[in-house]
Amino acid sequence: MLLRNCLFENSRGKNSTRRLLGLFLLLSLAPAGAQALTPAHYLSLSDVGRLQNLLSQQFTDLESAYYSVVGLTKLGATVPDHKGVCQFLKSQLDPTSIDSLFFAAETSRAISGCEIPVSNETRDILLAAVSEDSTMTQIHRAVSTLSSLGLPLASQEVVGALTGRINKEDNVMAITLALQTAARLSQQADLGGILEEIEDLTARLDDLGGIYLQFEEGLEATAVFVTAAYSLSDHVDMEPPLKEDQVIQLVNSIFSKKSWDSLAEAFSVASAADALSNNRFHVPVIVSAQGPATVSHSQPTLQLLVTDVMSQPLTSANVLVESARTFTVLLLFFFSGVFELNFMSNQPASGYYQFTVAVTGDSRLVANHVELKVKVSTEVAVTNMDLSVVDKDQSIGTKTSRVDYPSKSKSPFTADSHQNFAMSFQLVDVNTGVELTPHQTFVRLHNQKTGQEVVFVAEPDSKNLYKFELDTAERKSEFDSISGTYSLYLIVGDATLENPILWNVADVILKFVDEEAPATIQPKTLYVPKPEIQHLFREPEKKPPTVVSNTFTALILSPFLLLLILWFKLGANISNFSFSPSTILFHVGHAALLGLMYVYWTHLNMFQTLKYLAIIGGVTFLAGNRMLAQKAVKRYVSRWCRAQMVPRESLIPERKPSPLSEYEDSDALRPLVSSYP
Prior knowledge:
By secondary structure, the chain is of the alpha+beta class. It is built from 17 helices and 24 strands. Strands 1-9-12-14-7 form a five-stranded mixed beta sheet, with no helix packed on it. Helix 3 runs antiparallel to helix 4. It is flat and about 125 Å long. The N and C termini lie far apart (138 Å). Residues 43-277 form the Ribophorin II N-terminal domain. Residues 656-677 are annotated as: Disordered.
């Protein structure tokens, strides 16, 4: 396969457009192959505008002033009222606070003509903070303040403090601050150990589906890491250990979020965008179509934007078309980043095409091989529209009428059950005359009286000639055998057509067999609510006769009636009822349980009943236990009292004859016998 490339370089003239050196490209259709990962998210011009609006809010303290002023500077925006900002910094400055000094010094560095006064005491406070005993945040802010104010600093001592602190604060934010701090030190210092932390942090990144790469700490930590990594790498002039795909994944992760929760988060995104656009090693390329990716004979060129992640043009870029379907000629508009590709010079057929471009001209460019998709649109016309009514037994010759698009046939066509209505036509490209086969080609018949519509699909033959034939005898069920005048429409549609067609071609009178026609014509409408379905419940069973119900009720109440009769006849032992609290509570609880059963039957469900049953049953159980215990004690005491009233002799058990019984009458043993119980 012969492959020639078109290379276009930047023009250096002002206010002019210049056709650049180009070779015509004869290429075969390049299907999508294994493509390198390209950025799916970046800061569009509208995103940059919203980011600037967020950072332009009125600041209330030194921290918000730092985020706003420095963040706007990172985006390349103008900071208004430098003098007013400087006065605000000086009025809010606390010379004894490292945080206050850091925010004021960094902000004053971003504007012109603003100097922060520094005393010896302030310098001593900053130098004292550069210690392994200080937190990483304090070390970073102290070193950054000393650097911004131009004060002398022992870089190697700072390296020692950072190294010792990393061993104590082994987390992402602490190590990232160490990278940012090292970027402010002298290049003669031994920064190799800290530089290696970039690779260690890269290993901690989480890969999400091969598209995103981020820390679990969130967006801000990821963006600050990117800023710190490129800042330190630029400082020591050593490429960071990041692969091209990892850079693109970081870009997708940082710029996928289009709304930011705080000034700090917005500032981190702005800083990362600046670092990815202005570093010595990796500059991601964004290639996108300006407007819809559609070309046609009226708009033959496709405009491509070649920018960085902040949608700023890459003025030094060259565009190399690597694969396409047709001849292409590119024009570059100087200082606009817009490249024009002429797709229509070779009259391509309508459809979708894929092509690949390579952006060159800078060794730093990342993701510079981009696959794009373009739609070639055209206009369609209907030709050779022939209408005829064919007799089935061929007893009458066929008469064909031709109708020119977009006119309507002057006379209607009539077809009955012995005839077929036929239509044939072709669809061609208006610009090239090439025959087309759009995705959607329909024939619609609309009853002018009832509004009924019947739609048929028109299919092309091997010569791309569309034919449609209606057999009224076989198709009568689709028309519900409703005779009348039908409007014949041709519908043509496709995503690549600029002029979809809805053409009222002619009127057709269809006559069906009279005896098969329904007595009452009811038009069939597909898009109306269907009648509501009324659900019919099962009819309840008939109630039993009143005599049966009354008899059953009497049988249920008969035991209670018998109880009342026996009470009146024999008497009830009411005098033995105890009015102690436990007895009363037990009987009340028992009555409550019976009442609960009734309420369960009428109002409650099982779960509600169980809840109340647990409460009432528990109280009734305890009260009943107490009542029965009292009755048992009372019964025992009653028996003991009756035992005390029995004669003493009856309580002496019968004893066996004693061997000494023969001596019972003797006077010697009388005292012993009398003392025996």
